[in-house]
Design a protein that fits this description.
heterodimer; A: mainly beta; six-stranded mixed sheet; 11 strands; B: mainly beta; four-stranded antiparallel sheet; globular
């Protein structure tokens, strides 16, 4: 049973445009929501993360929006650049549970065209 | 700065063969994880460990075994390899303190079972 659903599976955006990736979760025990960025042949690397006590977090061109009541969160990439072309994964975990296990969404392949 | 190191990077196995995927981290992290990544399916947790001598099953443990004799090392053993185990395998680690949640990933092992 997939507990974190991510959409779309792929996304093509022009340089300078906005990329938006959405995730929805089911487990109300989740209280940590990171986004990971993965380049081909590499492991995922943490991009940005949010806790449910805030509705938005911004780091440079990357913003997470969080809607606790809807159990949804999204990643916005502003002014998308060709170097942002990668696969993005949302994830969620219950921080206080044993192992702090991350549950991942299915991933979104983003292609930024120059 | 080694971080999380996985070996080998690539491997081809014949059906029924066995192998061990190696993972070591030099960050003194308590928590370690093994994930598999299948196309379009995100990352699925195979096994995890919260410290030396303690391991537990994740979402997809069948066909795999792990051990954690030291803080640094967390090998994943495949017994009787099957084509369904063709995947990219990632090892990850986390400090494991309350509130510290960033997971660091290795570069992955691409395994093909033929």
């Amino acid at each position: 049973q997939q507990q974190v659903k991510q959409s779309p599976q792929s996304l093509i955006v022009q340089k300078g445009g906005i990329s938006i990736i959405n995730c929805a979760y089911e487990n109300t025990a989740f209280d940590y929501f990171p986004w990971y960025q993965q380049f081909p042949g590499k492991g995922p690397a943490l991009l940005i993360a949010i806790r449910p006590d805030v509705s938005e977090k911004k780091e440079g061109r990357f913003t997470i929006s969080f809607n606790k009541s809807a159990k949804q969160f999204s990643l916005h990439i502003m002014d998308s650049q060709p170097g942002d072309s990668a696969t993005y994964f949302c994830a969620a975990s219950p921080v206080a549970a044993a192992g702090n296990k991350l549950t991942f969404g299915g991933g979104t392949r983003v292609l930024v065209k120059p | 700065n080694a971080g999380v190191t996985q070996t080998p990077k690539f491997r081809i196995l014949k059906i029924g063969q066995s192998m061990t995927l190696q993972c070591t981290q030099d960050m003194n992290h308590n928590y370690m994880y093994w994930y598999r990544q299948d196309p379009g399916m995100g990352l699925k947790l195979i096994y995890y460990s919260v410290g030396a001598g303690i391991t537990d099953k994740g979402e997809v443990p069948n066909g795999y075994n792990v051990s954690r004799s030291t803080t640094e090392d967390f090998p994943l053993r495949l017994e009787l390899a099957a084509p369904s185990q063709t995947s990219v395998y990632f090892c990850a680690s986390r400090l494991g303190q309350v509130g510290n949640t960033e997971a660091f990933f290795g570069q992955g092992t691409r395994l093909t079972v033929v």
